[in-house]
Amino acid sequence: EDHEAKGPWHPNLDLERLQVALRWMMLNRTFDQRMWQIQRQGRISFYMQARGEEAISIAQGMALRSGDMCFPSYRNQALYMYRGMSLVDMMCQCLSNTRDMCKGRQLPVMYHSADDRLFSISGNLGTQFPQAVGWAMASAIKGEEHVAASWIGDGTTAEADFHHAVTFASVYQAPVLLNIVNNQYAI
């Protein structure tokens, strides 16, 4: 509430690892600002800023393994960057040009990358939680050691999808990380 960090840093994180995280967060902040300006100029139709949510994307991106599956929201641009998606590919998707991974069939910022284990973003973000739980349950049934992770804003917790997902995750002990982000009255 007073805009000050609370609590100690993780005691096992060395300074070099923290600097790597900060570099990724700053890259996201720079990309985010540039894309927001382009949207305000009318060159792209839709853009959701990730400002203030960089740390959650980078911290979990650094903690997850490469085989783990991510079901991000449209405010997790830093996660896409960290997992290997190029800035050019992300920009092309927002611009819906000839290099757009979605071939113009998806709203801007609805990125995806099968190679980087990043599920397609959905405009209805509540759907990401049940999808993540289902993927995690399937992974566990197959005997894999992968986890799924998903992110939603706190307003989405009022949706039935949220409640269905946490119930299934709890009952079936799904290996899933369900993140609820306080995005400060996002839209």
Summarize the structure.
This protein has helices spanning 15-40, 54-63, 77-82, 87-95, 128-141, 160-172; strands spanning 69-71, 148-153, 176-181.
Assembly form of the protein: single chain
The residue ranges in which pLDDT falls below 50 over 5 or more consecutive positions are: none
- Helical residue percent band: 40-55%
Mean pLDDT comes to: 90
The span between the termini is 20 Å
Give the strand line-up of the largest sheet.
1-2-3
Radius of gyration in whole Å, from Cα?
17 Å
Order of H and E elements:
HHEHHHEHE
What does this structure look like?
The chain has 187 residues and is mainly alpha-helical. It has helices at 15-40, 54-63, 77-82, 87-95, 128-141, 160-172, and strands spanning 69-71, 148-153, 176-181. The protein has a 3-stranded parallel sheet, covered by helices on one side. Strand 2 (148-153), helix 6 (160-172) and strand 3 (176-181) form a beta-alpha-beta unit. Helix 1 crosses helix 2 and helix 5 packs parallel to helix 6. The chain is globular, with a radius of gyration of 17 Å. 35% of the residues are buried.
